[in-house]
Description:
The structure holds two protein chains of two kinds.
Chain A: H1 18-49, H2 51-62, H3 64-91, H4 98-122
Chain B: H1 7-36, H2 43-49, H3 53-81, H4 88-114
Helix pairs in contact in B: 1-3, 3-4
Amino acid sequence: MTPQRPFFLDLRQIRLPIGGFVSILHRATGAGLALAVPFLLYALALSLESPEGFAAVAGFFGGWLGWLIGLGLTWALLHHLFAGLRHLGFDVGWGEEKTRARQTAWLSLVAALVLAILFWGLS
Amino acid sequence: MRRVGGAHRGLDMWLFQRASAVYMALFIPVFAVCALAVDTMDHETWRGLFAPVWMKVASLLFVVSLLSHAWIGLREIFIDYVHCARCVWPRLVLYFIFAVLYLGCLVWAIDILWSVQ
């Protein structure tokens, strides 16, 4: 027995509230980071192996493509971290009221962007 | 009575997802402070960071947390999106691929960390 509910899944028209937006980004950044793990491990191995390896990794993240990837990964990590802390708060019953939940959603979104840009802008 | 699989595994994973998250949330700032505290980061300093045994152990625990956290998270995503009557096998294959990949990463990480003297 399946009740016939109306459903609407047009992604171009769905307007998520800020909490939903931060939450789906938490999932997307998590998936991206999970796929990046082997490559980051390779970079770690190379950078620890020899001075030449270290220079190669530093050179890659110094180039425009590496800079972009580094910025993206840092943002993804920070967003996943902050949104994850927000969800941990919900688990223990903190910040579940509508206004507070919206504030923390905006906070994690903005803080991750600002810190990532600050870090890669200054280095 | 012996329990064969079942209802509690989901709860175990849910809890482990939180525990690994807490460890990573503690490790990342500590590591970032250690790495950013130095004047200039070169190969010698970078290696020196991983030289103490406590840093090797703490980093390996981070890798273990990261890999299991990632596997449980991906499993969650596969359950949501690879979801149909005929999708059980594709889903199991995906679990298997990432389990093998991540176990390989774990052994690799041990080799990387303990190669630093």
